[in-house]
Specification:
The chain is α/β, with parallel strands linked by helices. Helix content is about 40%, strand content about 15%. α1 (about 10-15) runs antiparallel to α2 and α3 (about 45-55) packs parallel to α4. The longest helix has 20 residues, at about 240-260. It is globular, with a radius of gyration of 17 Å. The mean pLDDT is about 95.
Amino acid sequence: MVSFSQLTYAQRGKEHPHPLARELFAVMERKRSNLSLAADVATKAELLALADSVGPYICVLKTHIDVIADFDADLVAQLQALAEKHDFLIFEDRKFADIGNTVKLQYGGGVYRIADWAHITNCHVIPGEGIIQGLAEVGAPKGRGLLLLAEMSSKGMLATGAYTDKNVEMALANDFVIGFIGSRRFTEERDLITMTPGVGLHASGDALGQQYRTPEMIVTENGSDIIIVGRGIYGPGKDVVAEAQRYRDAGWAAYENRLK
């Protein structure tokens, strides 16, 4: 059997059973981009300006909506308009980690009403399979998709070994799950997408334990599908458009090298 990582995004999208995964693969092919921007900024104006500048070069905008100091409903409307304008999906990096009934309320209601506008969200499976079921009850009718946090990119992370294996087991058993946050391809039993944070053009780290790996390491060698980049694009002194183009090109080249 040919590994899913040896198939093109177009081939995988054509055969994928989940409508949102098919849409994501189609966006990636249209834009020749496997780049997700981690938009970790603190104001509405910053988020919208960044999304508009980088939008043409990404397939997914990853948000932390709860750090936006001046959040309002208009922000959501403008983000949705930018996603339509620039042809990208929105991933709210909420990292749900509570029992099923609680996450249903957090995902579908509250101030942010995440399920109404985020195509993708994610969760830890520490509470057990009920967290997936609770999120699915809200998100599946809206056509949303879920990523499981099989690994993280920080030094000393505890998501390893048997815990990571349990993520894979739960993903295979739940159709609402479209993939993982992690550093590699985890299974060939089903086509599950891997999105990888902590990607930089040069392997390094930061003072708070973030570890950076190159697109070649992540996509070509490890079989991951989407690179997530934040400060490497919009850090101090960066030309965000030029950096977004550089990371988009590097990520796509790593993918094309994987297919050879």
